[in-house]
Design brief:
The protein has about 150 residues and is of the alpha+beta class. The protein has helices spanning about 5-20, 70-100, 105-130, 135-150; strands spanning about 1-5, 25-30, 30-35, 45-55, 60-70. Strand 4 (about 45-55) and strand 5 (about 60-70) form a beta hairpin. It is elongated.
Amino acid sequence: MDFDMNANSLLEKLKKYIDTEQRYKMKVVDQHIVIDIPEKESHYWSPQLQIEVEALTENSSKLKGLFGPKPQVWTLFMFIHFAVATAFVVFAIMAYSNWSLNKSYFFPLVMLIALPILWILLYFIGSVGKSTGEKQMNELKSFMKKVLREL
């Protein structure tokens, strides 16, 4: 969303409004604002809203927002996906090596079937988590719309 005001002025106005708001936990770092759900309502799948104030010209700026999971959730999911992918490659190499050496390759083959099933399961777990945090995401969206109307 574009504004006809300096990026620093826009950031200062947002900071003032944030300081008066008690419902959400908010952090300001440089040109970024992170809005979190209150701790008493927060759960593992709670979203957060990251807002960036970007200067377009000396007298205009742009506000960008991104809803997403908390960094801990994102990091854990990426670590698990990386571990599953690495295990898949390792078991593929083991299966090929055992096959070429005429040894039993039953276990690596079972793992080559199980790991994609685990990937699918991770996808559905992420989808359930996303839908669990949808209500809170809509609350954050409504809050941000209210803030933007008052600017």
